[in-house]
Structures are given as structure tokens and as C-alpha cells.
Amino acid sequence: MKIYDLSKELFSASVFPGDPAPEKRPVMEISETCACNLTALSLGSHNGTHMDAPKHFVASGKDMAQVALEKCVGPCKVIVHSGLFTAEDAHRALADGTKRLLIRGEIEITPEGAEALAADGLWFLGVEGMTVGGKTTGVAVHRALLGAEIALLESAVLDGVSAGAYFLSSAPLKMQGLDGSPCRPLLIDFEEGGQA
């Protein structure tokens, strides 16, 4: 069994322009008078490798605590693509019934591509980029995906991951009312490396 960690280290990861940067502040430190360490955190809901909840772009959408876990955990397919990801690309990727999809490569999902992913019944989409759409199409792409309640993972690390079938575990933190959550997605290849 081989486990791929798809996450970036939170405090060193690039921050999307305009988002708050994560910060950490010691509250308690081990010393002669203190038995433990405790740290206060300040961060944006979309720092580092993170998941978007429908609420991110859909006013009445579900929050992070309401995202269905079965969408985030289970069999997953990895494909390699670069450039625009169109409706034709989406139909091709999901033709075998894939419900969870990770795309390795520098891509920009077109609004039509996003609509096709939603129409074809995708549950989960992960990309390496900090966002799924382009500068002028980002809102439309997010609304098409999140409006269909597709669990969306951004800033994933897919270096060294070959195209193929895997098992995905990408559960977000259970935070009521939030539009996104940092997470640590794992991709598991049960066939590589022998028995666990």
C-alpha cells in the first residue's frame, strides 16, 4: 500500500490574492510553570490545500459541516490534463461512471466543462491550481460545480501521482457556517508496495 499526501504545508503555501495569510501564536509553552504547548491560529477558510463548500459561491448553499462525506471518501480516478478542460474532456473523463476525479496538470475548467461535470453526476473534483476557473470565468465555474454540490478540492499536490485508479480520503474539518476548510487529502494505492 502507498499513501500519497496531496496537501501543501499550510504556513508556507502561497496565499490567493486578497485572502488572509495564516498565522500562529503561542498561547502556552512548556516551561517550569507550564506543562504543555498550546497555539492560537488565525487563517482564511481557503488557505493551503482546501475544500470549497457550496456556500462559497451559492448564497443558500450548504456549509462545510453539511458536505456529504461519501462524496469525499471512496474510489477515485486521477487523470493528466493541461490547458482548457472542456465539456468534451469532462464527458470523456466521466464516461466510465467516475464519481471522484483528480486532475493533475495546469488546467482551466471552462464554464461548459463545469456544467458537463455537473450534468454527468460528478461528486468530487480536485485540481492542483489555487482555483478551478480563469480570471473571467471563475465565478461561473464555481457556481456550476458548487451549485451541483460537487465537493471541490483546490491546491492539491499531485506530483508523482500517475493516472489511474485509487482510493481517496479528503474529509474537510466539520465547521458549521463556513464556506471552505483547509484539509489533508490522502490518495491510497492499495496495489503498490504489497500488503499493508
UniProtKB/TrEMBL annotation:
Gene3D superfamilies: Putative cyclase
Domain of life where this protein originates: Bacteria
Protein name (Swiss-Prot/TrEMBL): Cyclase family protein
Organism: Anaeromassilibacillus senegalensis
